[in-house]
Every structure is written in structure tokens, then in C-alpha cells.
Amino acid sequence: MYHLKTFNAIASEGLERFDKANYSINESDNPDGIILRSQNLNDYDFPKSVLAVARAGAGTNNVPVTQCAENGIVVFNTPGANANAVKELVIASLLLSVRPMIQGANWVQTLEGDDTEKQVEANKKQFAGHELYGKKLGVIGLGSIGAMVANDAYRLGMDVMGYDPHVSVDTAWSISRRVKRAKDMSEVLKECDFITIHVPLLDSTKGLISNKELAMMKEDATLLNFSRGEIVDVDAVVSAVNDGNIAGYISDFADSRLLHNDKILVLPHLGASTEEAEVNCAKMAAATLKDFLENGNIKNSVNFPTVEMRFSSPYRLTVINKNVPNMLGVISSLIAAEDINIDNMINRGRGDFAYTIVDVNETSDEKINRIIDVLTENENIIKVRAIKD
Ligand SMILES: NC(=O)c1ccc[n+]([C@@H]2O[C@H](COP(=O)([O-])OP(=O)(O)OC[C@H]3O[C@@H](n4cnc5c(N)ncnc54)[C@H](O)[C@@H]3O)[C@@H](O)[C@H]2O)c1
Ligand SMILES: O=C(O)[C@H](O)COP(=O)(O)O
């Protein structure tokens, strides 16, 4: 029986993948797995029982990812599962920034008398706008969301320029060849009428857009931030907007300093809040967590490598260790010392950590437990599990 703990509302389509015979949800103080959305776990006291955390979403800045790795906790996210929802909101925001639809619609509601049509025709000029067609959009971060935004903005007739120094090969293939690759971020900042940011919040991206970057932007340019509030220096962007150095700011991250300003549109973190995205994320998070708990396979982790192997033996040992020399030697010689045959084995390292799956042709709990006890005492080994087929 595995025990799970959830934070935030996780779509039932995901949770129902955990069959009741083998899983309990929110019934134990010692969960094996955690599923969450934006709940901040950075100061959370993780129970020792936790083996994995699945973020039903893209950003994992609300989880202490490195600390989890040090404690042998695998952190997953759901790459791309909510990208379409964010893309649609970005496109809607671009349209809202050039067409004062909300202001016009609100004004219509204030009209009195029965000559509504006459009043509308006489006054609609104040809500005239511009078109996106032919304007230049800069996309900073060409991952799942950025790539979709770039492609669809191009289809709307915009000139699109993208910047991403670490773009993945898969994503690069998905981006239209009509999207120009910028050589650095300043090229995007200086040339574009709209700039939209789609990077994760990391130490290297905190304050990515501050006074210096805002000063490079055109006076009539609009900045959009659907990534994380901390990526844009709020005081700097408010000053840039108020001083007329840029035309406007659209953010999905509320902050009191951004409120009550006609040139700033703030949304209540709605990027991924469509039913479809919530279901996609919950299903993907459930699938990866289940595969890890039941089979020890790792896919879509942000702190461990992808390591997957079909079960081929009665027993599977999984080992999380520091990425130092001779760990495979230590593991395999202990198994050999118990006169056990290795059927299949896979190992991958990522940064300071590594993960190994070993399928062994053995059925004796006693022998397996002896191996686990010795491995657990090794200073370079963080966590060992035995999983029965
Ligand atoms: N508003 C929302 O509700 C919402 C929803 C989903 C994601 N997000 C945020 O958007 C972020 C991106 O999501 P995604 O699914 O596209 O992630 P992703 O991992 O697919 O793409 C991120 C891209 O950013 C690039 N990048 C990293 N540092 C960069 C830098 N300094 N300059 C340029 N590019 C850089 C990476 O190389 C990668 O290609 C998430 O990490 C999350 O914080 C917000
Ligand atoms: O990083 C993400 O996926 C988004 O910020 C979504 O957050 P949410 O799951 O709280 O809507």
C-alpha cells in the first residue's frame, strides 16, 4: 500500500489513476509521495517517508529541488502539459494590449437612455486600438510555452524573434523557421514591440528584467510576464511604465505595487487554470509518480536523470547515490557476494547525483535485505529500495 499526500486542488482525472486497493490519499502522516501545484514547500518539513514529489505543473521553484535530491527525494514536473493554456492567455493578453476591449465593454454598460446605438457610434473612437499584424514580438525562453507562443504569433502575422541560449533539440525542431533566432537578449529588448518571458525561476533568472534591460526597450513596447513575478524587478518595471520608458506591463503574478495603474494589467495567476490543463497536468503527474513508486522508473524529473527499464526479474533494487566513481562496482560486488545474478542494470548520473536500477534473479527477502543494509551504510548512498515484481 502506498500513501499519498496532496496539496492544492488536483484534478480527479489524475487522482483516480491511483487505485484504492493500493493507494491511500491524505490518510497518512507518512506519505510515500506528494502531489501538489503551487503550494510553497520551501520551508516544509518533509516526513522521512517521502520518496517523491510530483508537481502538477511546470515551475518547481515552490519545491526545494536540490535539498530533495540530497535526501533522495525525486521531484517530477509535467513538461508541456499546461503549455497550450498559457499560450492562449498570452495571445489573449497581446490582443487586449492593443485593443481596449475591456474598457469599451465596461463603458457600454454605463450607458443610459434608449439611444444606445447613437451614443456608441458617437463615442467609440476613444476605444480605437491597433493591430498585432506586422508588429514585432520577442520571446525570451523557447521551451514548451515560448515555442507555442512564437509559432502562433507568427501565424497571426507578427514578426517573431526568439532568444534561448539552452533551447532543447526537440523544441528547436518545433519552432517555425520563420521565427528569427536572436543572438542575445539585448537584441530582443531593443527591437521588439512586445516582449514575452517564458523562462523558469532560477537563481540565474531572478531579476532577469530590471532597470538595465527595461532601459533598452522601446518607449512604445509592452512587456508580458507569465513566468514568475520575481523574474521581473517590480519596482523597476513600475518606474519604467510611470516614466514612459515602456508602454505597459502585463503580469500573471499579482503584487500590490502593480495595482491601480492603467498601464499595468495584472491577472491572478491564471496561466494554467483551464480545465484541460489541470486534467493534463494531474494525469501526467499521477502517471510519473505511479511508475516511480511501483517500478522505480524515473521520467520527467527535475533533479534526477531519466532512467527507465522494463521489469525483468522478481526483484528490483533502486539506488540513489552521490555521483562519485565506483558506485556501480560497490553495488554489483555486494550482489555478487550474495551469489545473486544480475539480470539487467541501468545507471545514469545527473550533476551531483546518480540513479541505478538493478533487476536481480532472486526471491529471498533475507538476501535482499542484507544487501540493502550494507548499501545503506555506505556514505555515498542516499536511498535504496527493493521493489517486487
Ligand atoms: N502563469 C502560469 O500559470 C504558468 C504556467 C506554466 C508555466 N509557467 C512558468 O513558465 C515557465 C516556463 O514554462 P515552460 O513549460 O515553457 O518550461 P520549459 O522548461 O519547457 O521552457 C523554459 C525555457 O527557458 C529557457 N531558459 C532558461 N533560462 C533562460 C534564459 N536566461 N534566457 C532565455 N531562455 C532561458 C530554457 O532553455 C527552456 O527552453 C515555468 O518554469 C513556470 O515558471 C507559468
Ligand atoms: O508553473 C506552472 O505550471 C504554473 O504556474 C501553474 O501553477 P498552478 O498549478 O498553481 O496553476
Automatic annotation (TrEMBL):
Catalysed conversion reaction: (2R)-3-phosphoglycerate + NAD(+) = 3-phosphooxypyruvate + NADH + H(+); (R)-2-hydroxyglutarate + NAD(+) = 2-oxoglutarate + NADH + H(+)
Listed A to Z, the keywords are: NAD, Oxidoreductase
Q: What class of enzyme is it?
A: oxidoreductase
Q: Which InterPro entries match?
A: ACT-like_dom_sf, ACT_dom, D-isomer_2_OHA_DH_cat_dom, D-isomer_DH_CS, D-isomer_DH_CS1, D-isomer_DH_NAD-bd, NAD(P)-bd_dom_sf
Q: Which CDD domains match?
A: PGDH_like_3
Q: From what organism does this protein derive?
A: Floricoccus tropicus
Q: Give TM segment ranges.
A: none
Query: Which superkingdom heads the taxonomic lineage of this protein's source?
Result: Bacteria
What would be an example GO MF term here? Answer: phosphoglycerate dehydrogenase activity
Q: Pathway it belongs to?
A: Amino-acid biosynthesis; L-serine biosynthesis; L-serine from 3-phospho-D-glycerate: step 1/3
Q: What is the annotated role of this protein in its UniProt record?
A: Catalyzes the reversible oxidation of 3-phospho-D-glycerate to 3-phosphonooxypyruvate, the first step of the phosphorylated L-serine biosynthesis pathway. Also catalyzes the reversible oxidation of 2-hydroxyglutarate to 2-oxoglutarate.
Q: Which family does it belong to?
A: Belongs to the D-isomer specific 2-hydroxyacid dehydrogenase family.
Domain ACT stretches: 316-389
E.C. number: 1.1.1.399, 1.1.1.95
What is the official name of this protein in its record? D-3-phosphoglycerate dehydrogenase
